[in-house]
Amino acid sequence: MDMTDEYLCATLCKFLVKIKKQNGELYPKETLYGIVLALQSHLEMNGQSVKFLENEKFKPVLNALDNTVKLRSVLTTRMILNICFTRSNVQRTTKVVCAL
């Protein structure tokens, strides 16, 4: 099935933003890059020459990949900080309640 480059680009961008492991965990950046390169290889073996990380018309794919990795890093950091902050509050609250 041949797809236009525009459709392929838009679909791959959406895929990169939404993809997760079956258990809900996020894939590491190396895995995301590997998936993009595997898709590129598959398409080339089937007669559709694409260069997702090199061709200017696929720049949105590279941007989506980079931004997804950055966003996931920020979200992971925030989740860790929230967990630490929540645990800290729980410990303080427990101490106050026990002191009463």
Please give the structural blueprint.
Layout (H helix, E strand, L loop, with lengths): L4 H14 L10 H17 L13 H41 L1
Helix pairs in contact: 1-3
In short:
The protein is mainly alpha-helical and 100 residues long.
Kindly provide the radius of gyration, computed on alpha-carbon positions and rounded to a whole number of angstroms: 21 Å
Distance between the termini: 71 Å
Low-confidence stretches: 90-100
Total separate domains? 1
What do the pLDDT scores average to?
A: 78
Q: How many strand elements?
A: 0
Order of helices and strands: HHH
Helical content class = over 70%
Number of helices: 3
Sheet with most strands? none
Global outline: elongated
